[in-house]
Amino acid sequence: MRHLLDTRTLTREAAVRILDTAEEMADTQHREVRKLPALRGKTVVNLFYEDSTRTRISFEAAAKRLSADVINFSAKGSSVSKGESLKDTAQTLQAIGADGVVIRHPASGAPDRLARSGWIDAGVLNAGDGTHEHPTQALLDAFTMRRRIFGAQASRGRDLDGVSVVIVGDLAHSRVARSNLWLLTALGARVAFVGPETLQPYGAREWPATVRHSLDEALREDAPDVVMLLRIQSERMHAAYFPNEREYARNWGLDDARLAALPERTIIMHPGPMNRGLEISSAAADSERSTVLEQVANGVSVRMAALYLLLSGERGDPRDRLPGEAQPSRSTGKRTEQA
């Protein structure tokens, strides 16, 4: 695997391979010594232009448990605050010998630009770009679904064929929703987007998802195996997308009454951080059917798998190359332009 930039282009086979590798990684995390030597001698840079707690710590833990050297780069307090471009930052990382770059950026498409640019030879892993995608979040969500629905021992090699997933909330600004839609669809799941019209993504009716505006209707009609609540991203909102928080909670929040009405098999997910009382009640967040903390724990195993597949073997396999990407020379390993 050369880069991991999105889930839209992941095939079922590639996705299952990552999830199965994550199962192997999860098995090692119950040992007394959890570190593996798989990436010893490799350098992973966490290049974060946006604030993050769960994702950055998760990637740092994943890289260290694979014995990689980790450099944490924050845009705040760096030369970026002085106007340094992504190109100049990338070339600096190239000079220090980065093997992998985990990038979170407020601009949609920044990881793709970095991967295609030729500025750096490192593998690039998208940790969230604008309102575009967040592929490892979707992978850890799918990993959690497989384990909860089929059990850890029976989940290997399985997709999510026939599983019904209802994703509720701020879909317009959510890269998590987009990545989950493409990944879950590739794995055979049925996805419904639920939220007010103002928070539906542009073009959503042409996507492979059922679009609904009533959460109660979705819970009744879609008979979900999974209900995923999304955070209201007020920092990305520059207009009034719904009347007020009380109105939103009444219409689209998973409150105690809706929790009690859910089928017994239904699990509850949230990518965090949660706004309790708005998207989800405390009773729902803390219930036995909630997977919120499992998602955090599983994120380390999934990111270990992604980093391992990205950095452990020979990179530059033609099957894994981006369209239009320069080919490595067989004799020198240097990049040459495609004919």
Automatic annotation (TrEMBL):
Its EC number is 2.1.3.2. It comes from the Bacteria. The keyword NADP does not apply. The keyword Transferase applies. Heterododecamer (2C3:3R2) of six catalytic PyrB chains organized as two trimers (C3), and six regulatory PyrI chains organized as three dimers (R2). Catalyzes the condensation of carbamoyl phosphate and aspartate to form carbamoyl aspartate and inorganic phosphate, the committed step in the de novo pyrimidine nucleotide biosynthesis pathway. This is Aspartate carbamoyltransferase. It comes from Leucobacter weissii. The lineage of its organism: Bacteria, Bacillati, Actinomycetota, Actinomycetes, Micrococcales. The gene is pyrB.
